[in-house]
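Lay summary

Proteins are chains of building blocks that fold into shapes. Our project writes down both the chain and a compact code for its shape. Here are two examples, one after the other.
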Amino acid sequence: MSANEAKLIRIKDVIAISGLKRSTLYANISKGTFPSQIKLGERCSAWVESEILAVNQARIAGKSEQDIKELITQLKNQRQQNCFQ
């Protein structure tokens, strides 16, 4: 998915897609095993849907926590690169 096609989703949808509780989701973000949110405003955040789906696929495939951390790093780098295309 290109930067022009990236879909942003809110916390309710992230919870539904990931199956994680809100507290677990934020704990995983802190550990580096879940994509971080994007601030849309002072009190508004969203996530890139394709990043959430990529992490779900990695978990389904049985990837280790270290593998998922590496995936998160790759996704962050792609996010920054796509920003200027």
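And here is the second example, written the same way.
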Amino acid sequence: KFMMVCLLAVAHQLDVALGVDYIMLAATYGFIANESLSIVENAGLMGIVKSDVIVNAIEVLKGKSQKIE
């Protein structure tokens, strides 16, 4: 989690250096999406979430991340 904050600080510095305002925003949205997916996945493992749509979305995203590795 500390590294996320460090990366957001670097993204902010890039925004300032380049004179733009979307690098930190994109990094923030990426971290929010990643953490949201993790929360939903853990809820599914605990049996809280049983929606087929959510389960399929998680499987698709896992498949894409495994292809990258």
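What can we say about the second shape? The chain has one domain: 2-68.
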